[in-house]
Design brief:
3-stranded mixed sheet, mainly alpha
Length: 191
């Protein structure tokens, strides 16, 4: 799975289709399905999604630009203003203090004079990253993502690959969260 997501990509559906074909040839096999997460990358992407939602709601925009990320925050306008407001509300440093820190850092690293556009771009990247990193994703949210991944796999096997639902057992990912990879673990059992 892509970090922070519960949708199946084409490679996953191909693998599941291959599994389903093998299962349909062996009616005595059952499958246990358990969704898992990568605690670091999934939490990071869930934090990005939360930050994007906050920026979208507070800026009163209809949608974020398709390429919206830390390095593509507009230099001015509602999204830039909202980013600055969120930063000021979240941290004790003012935007101006952060801007001075960024300007000094850029000037120390460059032999050429630093432009205001470079300072503003670096400031927005820094504020975006600091805001993202300030968002804590609770384990319950990661567990919900893991459970949803398991449900997606089971739904695909039943609805698209025509595996009998009674042969597929969805394990409770919330009870024992595995946090090493963004995936689903499948275990085969014979009758």
């Amino acid at each position: 799975f892509t970090a922070g997501q519960d949708s199946l990509d084409e490679q996953a559906t191909q693998r599941l289709t291959t599994l389903a074909e093998a299962l349909n040839k062996r009616p005595g096999l059952r499958v246990s399905i358990e969704g898992t997460v990568d605690a670091v990358s999934d939490a990071r992407e869930l934090a990005v999604a939360q930050l994007h939602q906050q920026l979208l709601e507070r800026s009163a925009q209809d949608a974020l630009p398709d390429d919206f990320s830390a390095s593509n925050v507009p230099l001015e306008g509602p999204l830039a203003s909202t980013l600055e407001t969120l930063f000021s509300e979240t941290f004790s440093d003012s935007v101006q203090d952060e801007q001075q820190r960024i300007r000094a850092q850029l000037q120390n690293n460059n032999e050429e004079p630093v432009t205001e556009q470079q300072v503003t771009r670096a400031l927005h990247i820094a504020m975006y990253n600091l805001l993202r990193d300030s968002i804590t994703i609770p384990e319950s949210e990661l567990a919900a993502l893991a459970q949803e991944r398991g449900k997606r796999v089971k739904a695909y096997l039943v609805n698209q690959a025509q595996v009998e639902a009674g042969r597929l057992f969805l394990l409770n990912s919330r009870e024992h969260l595995q946090s090493q990879s963004s995936s689903v673990e499948l275990s085969l059992q014979a009758d």
